Backbone:
């Protein structure tokens, strides 16, 4: 059992933070790695990348958007409640190296995943520019954290309710026009990573993305998380979750992410009716 | 002599009652219903108690087969199960899933007449009877030695090691990556063939004996083998199974609606997706399902698909019926449940629609040529035989490989060319000091009983090591 010691609604009812007691995982976790959580006996196993870890307190922090029944069940847990199962740390950690100037781009809850990576890239001596974006101001998360984790922060919202109006890709284009960048790390919705990778390809800048396909075990045992990278099939849970953004087949990933959409929708609606 | 007696009493084999095919093909309840004590005694009475029993030569763990059968015949079921336990710690499981037709029953003297003793059924009976009527009394444990053993993986192999070492007085902790213990018995083999309750009871029995079962620990990630030694474990057993799904590596394989059998069965069994939406994990429900492969895993997948409401389920296999590796009983049950067999058929490509979902596959007709290294006749494509098979769900069940997660994060192990751990077949010792291995991670995907047999040998060796230092 893994107890929730802190809970915050970062955007009302839809983006939620949980800090969870998981000492073994907290001690081992490195930036870029994820955990799989299952709240109840009948629950689903859901992969989430850790936003923060505190080895001293023995806790990990996850931030998620409520999108289906699985995460709706998570949303209903309060401080003191427990997750039945938390497994990790899974996946390969981010390759951390001093390369010079780095841009870290995060969209939506992808910012949560991006945060520890940004901080670590700064700690190893890179100059880090961060660009974060959300649909609107109330959905923007971790601005302060990202400010602290980077040297320079740019904020965008799709609707212009805060920061620069427009997509993160546009802000990134400006940076790429004006500065020599060695590496871009981009984490967010698949379309964002797709278009952003097209952009950085134009500028020939190495780009790392973190993928979130459907997973079951997270240990390379089922192949449900397979993605095509550079024409080869990879298992995101063990070969990733980070890959060379210029090599990923995003269209395939988007189709695969929709495999259970109808089932998910039904399940979610039933749950909302029942818990309403 | 044996021949004569057999002739005299040519009583037919006692069939085990089963759910009717039309009914069971749509439910997940166990198919065979079990013997009553009368039926069991009737079947046990057919055994002629050979002086040199053929059956035992076929048993990988040397169960005293005539001995336990005699006890059943005499109605001493309590003694029968104890006799079985002496060699086999999971008889309720083995009675249900062992390939008896190529082991004990295949070598039973009565097999020549086509009616071997139903040894598997009797084994199952003895175990089930004990579960329903036994007192749950624990076997005696030797004085505590204070030595700590870590077992990685809670499949049949790891559970056997744990059971053997706990009664010898050692402290045993089993680490399991999944959230439930049991290995393939829980995530792979379906409920209708092996009720999960049986596995959980077996694990519960070990826990009552004092075995600690730590789920959600992925060794190699959450903790490493070397860290286990630092934590005070003096011996480590690796029984992590062959958990790496093989794919066909043909075009279109990443379309939606194509799953490895591992994923399909894990969703269905471990996550209980067959009870969606009561359980949250979804599973694709195909109407027109193809299953590639013809082993137990393929039969389990096909029969699961039928139970999830498919209209048509086809097993597609590139060799012929004679080479199908599944247990005889599984093939027979699948056929009764209206699963169709497309033999000598080799898929070459999956076809998808505009939404990226599989709608069919291109296949080649095969014929059998000269025998290959395995002695089986090699399938060769017939020229110009391309044809299409429609499907809306395809399950790939063409075998498993070695999962590298643990082995690659553990220094000092030696692996063979396929990534399996090299271990001494007599003791399970690996090249790394204090580390033993057995089961599918050593042999490649094999059987429950071989995994258990390897566990038993390793447990003996670990005990010697902890007691005498070798
Ligand atoms: C669908 C299916 C049907 C089968 N049917 C039959 C049958 O009818 N008869 C038969 O005899 N055999 C059958 N088999 C084969 C049989 O199940 C296996 O040979 C047997 O289970 C192997 O046992 P094991 O203990 O070596 O490994 P497993 O049963 O595979 O157990 C290994 C365990 O280790 C865990 N693990 C893996 N990596 C780690 C890690 N890094 N840290 C912690 N834990 C880890 C896994 O999660 C798993 O629980 C079948 C197999 C499948 C998949
Ligand atoms: S089970 Fe068959 S081989 Fe074994 S003792 Fe009985 S008759 Fe003989
Ligand atoms: S989640 Fe199963 S192999 Fe990656």
Residues:
């Amino acid at each position: 059992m893994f107890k929730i010691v802190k809970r915050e609604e970062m955007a009302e009812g839809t983006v939620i933070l949980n800090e969870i007691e998981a000492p073994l995982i907290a001690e081992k976790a490195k930036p870029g790695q994820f955990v799989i959580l299952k709240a109840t006996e009948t629950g689903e196993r859901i992969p989430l990348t850790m936003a923060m870890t505190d080895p001293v307190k023995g806790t990990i922090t996850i931030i998620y958007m409520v999108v289906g029944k699985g995460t709706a069940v998570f949303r209903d847990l309060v401080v003191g409640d427990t997750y039945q199962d938390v497994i990790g740390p899974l996946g390969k950690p981010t390759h951390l190296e001093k390369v010079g100037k780095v841009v870290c781009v995060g969209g939506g809850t992808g910012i949560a995943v991006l945060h520890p990576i940004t901080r670590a890239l700064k700690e190893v001596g890179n100059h880090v520019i961060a660009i974060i974006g959300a649909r609107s101001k109330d959905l923007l998360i971790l601005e302060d954290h990202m400010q602290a984790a980077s040297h320079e922060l740019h904020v965008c919202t799709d609707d212009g309710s805060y920061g620069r109006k427009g997509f993160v890709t546009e802000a990134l284009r400006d940076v790429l026009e004006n500065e020599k960048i060695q590496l871009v790390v981009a984490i967010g919705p698949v379309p964002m990573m797709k278009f952003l990778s097209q952009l950085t390809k134009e500028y020939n800048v190495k780009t790392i993305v973190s993928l979130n396909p459907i997973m079951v075990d997270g240990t390379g045992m089922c192949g449900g998380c397979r993605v095509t990278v550079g024409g080869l099939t990879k298992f995101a849970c063990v070969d990733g979750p980070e890959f060379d953004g210029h090599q990923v087949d995003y269209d395939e990933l988007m189709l695969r992410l929709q495999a259970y959409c109808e089932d998910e929708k039904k399940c979610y609606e039933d749950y909302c009716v029942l818990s309403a | 002599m044996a021949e004569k007696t057999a002739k005299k009493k040519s009583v037919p084999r006692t069939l085990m009652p089963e759910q009717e095919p039309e009914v069971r093909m749509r439910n997940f309840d166990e198919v065979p219903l079990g013997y009553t004590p009368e039926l069991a005694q009737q079947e046990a009475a057919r055994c002629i108690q050979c002086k040199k029993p053929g059956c035992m030569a076929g048993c990988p763990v040397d169960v005293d087969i005539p001995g336990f059968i005699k006890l059943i015949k005499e109605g001493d079921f309590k003694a029968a199960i104890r006799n079985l336990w002496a060699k086999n710690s999971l008889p309720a499981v083995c009675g249900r899933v062992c390939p008896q037709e190529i082991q004990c029953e295949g070598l039973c003297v009565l097999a020549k007449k086509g009616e071997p003793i139903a040894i598997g059924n009797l084994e199952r009976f003895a175990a089930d009877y004990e579960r329903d009527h036994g007192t749950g009394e624990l076997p005696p444990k030797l004085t505590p030695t204070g030595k700590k053993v870590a077992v990685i993986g809670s499949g049949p192999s790891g559970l056997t090691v744990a059971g053997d070492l706990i009664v010898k007085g050692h402290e045993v902790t089993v680490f399991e990556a999944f959230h439930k213990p049991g290995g393939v018995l829980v995530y792979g083999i379906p409920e209708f063939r092996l009720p999960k309750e049986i596995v959980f009871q077996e694990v519960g029995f070990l826990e009552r004996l004092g075995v600690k079962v730590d789920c959600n620990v992925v060794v190699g990630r959450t903790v490493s083998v070397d860290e286990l030694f630092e934590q005070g474990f003096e011996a480590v057993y690796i029984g992590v199974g062959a958990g790496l799904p093989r794919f066909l590596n043909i075009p279109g394989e990443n379309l939606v609606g194509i799953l490895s059998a591992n994923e399909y069965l894990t969703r269905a069994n471990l996550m209980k997706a067959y009870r969606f939406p009561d359980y949250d994990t979804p599973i694709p429900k195909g109407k027109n399902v193809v299953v590639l492969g013809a082993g137990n895993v393929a039969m389990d997948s096909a029969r699961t698909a039928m139970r999830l409401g498919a209209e048509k389920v086809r097993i597609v296999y590139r060799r012929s019926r004679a080479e199908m590796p599944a247990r005889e009983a599984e093939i027979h049950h699948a056929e009764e449940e209206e699963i169709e067999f497309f033999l000598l058929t080799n898929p070459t490509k999956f076809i998808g629609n505009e939404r990226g979902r599989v709608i069919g596959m291109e296949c080649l007709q095969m014929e059998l040529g000269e025998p290959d290294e395995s002695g089986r006749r090699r399938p060769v494509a017939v020229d110009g035989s391309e044809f299409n098979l429609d499907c809306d769900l395809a399950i790939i069940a063409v075998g498993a490989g070695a999962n590298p997660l643990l082995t690659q994060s553990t220094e000092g192990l030696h692996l063979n060319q396929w990534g399996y751990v090299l271990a001494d077949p007599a003791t399970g010792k690996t090249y790394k000091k204090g580390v033993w291995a057995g089961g599918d991670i050593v042999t490649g995907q094999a059987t429950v009983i071989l995994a258990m047999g390897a566990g038993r040998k390793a447990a003996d060796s670990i005990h010697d090591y902890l007691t005498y230092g070798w």
